[in-house]
Structure formats: C-alpha cells, structure tokens
Amino acid sequence: MHDLIIIGAGAIGSAAARELARYQLDILVLEKESDVGQVTSSANSAIIHSGYDPIPGSEKAVMNVLGNKLYDQMCEELDIDMRKIGSLTIATNDEEVEILRELEERGRKNGVPVEMLDHDQTLAIEPNLTPEVKLALLAPTAGIVNPFELSVALMENAMENGVQLRLNEGVTGLRALDGGGYEVTTNRGVYQARVVVNAAGLHSDEINNLVNPDTKFEIRPRKGEYFVLDHFDPNFIRHTIFTVPSSKGKGILVSPTTHGNYILGPSAEFVERKDDYSTSAETLAQVLATARKLVPTIPMNQVIREFSGLRAVEKSGHFIIEESLPGFVNLVGIQSPGLTSCPAIALEVVKMASNTLKMEKKPDFNPRRRPVVRLNRMTPEEREELVRKDPKFGNIICRCEKISEGEVLDCIHRKCGATTIRGVKRRVRPGMGKCQGGFCQPRIIRILSRELGIPEEDVRMNESGSWILSTERPCERDQ
Ligand SMILES: Cc1cc2nc3c(=O)[nH]c(=O)nc-3n(C[C@H](O)[C@H](O)[C@H](O)COP(=O)(O)OP(=O)(O)OC[C@H]3O[C@@H](n4cnc5c(N)ncnc54)[C@H](O)[C@@H]3O)c2cc1C
Fold first, then answer.
1. CA 244 – CA 272 distance, rounded (Å)
2. Which CATH class is domain 82-143+220-309?
3. Which residues line ligand 1 (CB under 6 A)?
4. Which of 35, 90, 313, 322 is the most exposed place for a label (fewest CB within 10 A)?
C-alpha cells in the first residue's frame, strides 16, 4: 500500500507532490494524459495574481496572497521563468473608477500592496494605453510565469526526491477500504493508498463523486479564448493590463509573456463539454474589441496563434480544499487564481495528509532543480563558450525561437522528460514561434525517434494516436 496517491499532475497535483516529497512517504502520482500539466495548467493567462481581487477572508484570497509570496522562492529553487512585472487595472469611466476604488480597498484588506495612478502617471509608464484612461490600480507584486515549465519543474523536482509518476493512467474507480485507506483503479492497474489527493481539475467532481456520494460536486467548464502575438517590441506593454473584473471573471487582459510574446484574452463562456477547446471568430472578435479599448494599437498582423482553456468552475464558485472523508483530500473547483495559489494549496495538502500519515522530514530533500540552459538569453560570449564545450548547443533546431539541439536533448533526458513533440515544445519552445513548427517539427521527430529508440512513425504529437507520420519519409538528416 502506498502512503499517498495524487490523482492529476497539473500545477496543483505537481505542487502537492513536490511539497509532500519533503517527507519520508511513498507517493504515487496518476495522470491520465501522456505528460504533466497538459490540461488547464497549460492553457491560461499565466498571471501570478497579486490578490487584490478575491473577497477578503475567502479561501481564494488567502491562497492567492500566500501563493504569490511563495512563488519567488519556488521559482528561484526550480529555475522557473517568472517575473514580477506588476499589473495595472484600468478604469475609463466613472462606473469603473468606483469599482477600482472598491478593488483598492479589497487589496488593502487582503494585505496586497496597491497604488492608484492618475491619467498622466499611468500613461507615463505605459504610453500605448488608451488615452481615455482615468485611473489605474497598480499592483506591483503581480507577475507572469511560464505555465508549461511550472508543472514540469515541480514534478521533476518531486521525482528527483522520490515521487513516482505514472502517465497515461486515468483513474476509473475509487473506493474506501474497510480499516482505512482507498483502492484506486485505473485503465492499467489497481493501487492502494492510505491517503488519496484529488487534483483532477475539470474531472475532480467525478473523482469525488465516486467515493463521496453524500457530497456531490459539479464542475462546469467555462471557456476562455486567447490570441497570442509574436515578440515584436519588448516595450510595447510592460505590465499586465486588466479591464475591471466582473461576475464572469477577471476580465480581458493584455500582457507580455515570459518569452516576450503578448497575450490577449480570455473570454468567459460556459460550455457543455470538458474537452471543448474550439475557438470562434465571433468570440475572438469580442476579445480583440475589448483588448483594443485598453491598448488601441495592438498590431494584429503579429498574431501567431489562438487557443482556449477551460476553467474548472464548481457550482458553488469556491475553491474546495478539504479533507472530505478521512484520508481523502479534495482540491475541487480550482479555477483562477489556481496557478498562483498552487504553492499555498500544496501546504494545505501537507496539513491534511498529516491527519493520517506520520510526517517525518527527509534529511536529504533537495529543493533545487538543475538549471535549464536558455541559449536565447545568453550573451554571445556565453554562447560561444557553451558551444565550444558541447557543439550540440550550436545546432539550431528552431529558427524562430533560436532553440538548439542541446536544449532539446536536455529536456528529453531529464526526470519527467519530454516524450512527445508537444512535450518538447512546451518545455523548450521549438514550435512556439512564428512558423509554429513548420521548420523544426521534422527535426524534433527525428531527435525524439533517435533518443527514445522508437521509429519515426511512432513519434506522437501528444496523446496516444496523435501520430504525425504514416511512413518513414526520406527527408534531410540533421547536420
Ligand atoms: C482561461 C483561464 C485563465 C486562467 N488564468 C489564470 C491566471 O492568470 N492565473 C492563475 O493563477 N490561474 C489562472 N487560471 C486557473 C489555473 O489555470 C488553474 O487553477 C490551474 O491550472 C488548475 O490546475 P489543476 O492542476 O487543478 O488542473 P489541471 O491542470 O487541469 O490538472 C488536472 C490534471 O488531472 C488529470 N486528470 C483528470 N482526470 C483524471 C483521472 N481520472 N485520472 C488521472 N488524472 C486525471 C488531468 O489530465 C490533468 O492533467 C486560469 C484558468 C483558465 C482556464
């Protein structure tokens, strides 16, 4: 019997795994997808919210504010790309000014540093904002993170510290055992654990309902659609710019990303299916119209991609972070600011697990991840030195993002390494640039085939069945 099983390896399950890895426990993570962080944790705005928005005293407020504080140390230890660039929430009319004043008050109650800027002060720091801005709420502790790297880094460090991860294992059954503990059935096997943590995101209601029929949850997916712009001018927008929030969510934002792209979105519409990631011209037109009210000169010729993500909205609208049955921990309805809150939620999981398990610290826990080589952030001299030591860092695989073969190899051979094209793309970015993989994808297929020892036809884009090639093609070999 394992001490603890975590169901789901998004940001929440991965953060919990890493926090629990500090203790002398036998931990297993079961993830139904072929990689970690594949679902909501990779399709969001990637903002480390400051915490001025949630209702003071609510679980969301507490987790958000603590999570934001914990991010600095977590990202430093795990070499996760994160920058506290600050956010500006913009009011352009009297009604919005009123809301902004309420948010300022909420921010103070939540213990979040906030400052009101007038028209001139706002345009002085963000000259491309609408000249109609009347007032802006500056929250300097807001940040941006690389969301793809987040779950990978958390899980890699958890695994370095002894956690086991089983991918492609969807939980289909769960029952309490007489005498304590749980039996967990997947498409591949049956496991037992003294504690089960339900971090199944959009499906966390279904996992709960398998074992806890007295308290049924219901998750409704609420879709958010986005535009992604190429990196064109690093000073076009320097902060995350928000419209004032509404009952539907935090509103539309315009923000730089950690890689110097810009993101516009998200919309907020309930959808029926938990796998509906379609985007629509109509919704995206509304996203653009609202984004242009904030930043009128958004250059749409820089758009390189659209995508959507699904918020796991529980019908109560709250974060449900509780030990619902002895040894059964629910992390349900973790919508925004879930990404921000993940390190704080992980601490709650440790507290709840300690009700059942003896928590003794591992003397040799290593909180640090081996740093990642980021060629495109190095000086020419640093690059030259690296290439001299290992010429694979001189073989550029992705021209748009300037990613070398050395970086691709590293992400395949780490713990929790990439095994698919999307896995490589999300870890080190080949395919994220303007050509969206047109140049680098055949090269990535070849490298994955060689490094994993599988035929090129067996290399997949992502989940099982998503092959790219039907026969091996005679194409140009890597240099
Ligand atoms: C449009 C949008 C914008 C957002 N913006 C922000 C933001 O800017 N800042 C912020 O803080 N938060 C934001 N969020 C919220 C944030 O993305 C989520 O709170 C967070 O990613 C939730 O992580 P998770 O691990 O709970 O869910 P997920 O990432 O969905 O992970 C759950 C995992 O469980 C797995 N799973 C499901 N069922 C099973 C099963 N039966 N067996 C095994 N595994 C299973 C899934 O495959 C998945 O990998 C946003 C969300 C959306 C949708």
1. 27
2. alpha beta
3. 7-13, 30-33, 38-41, 44-47, 49, 170-171, 199-203, 224, 266, 309-311, 334-340
4. 322
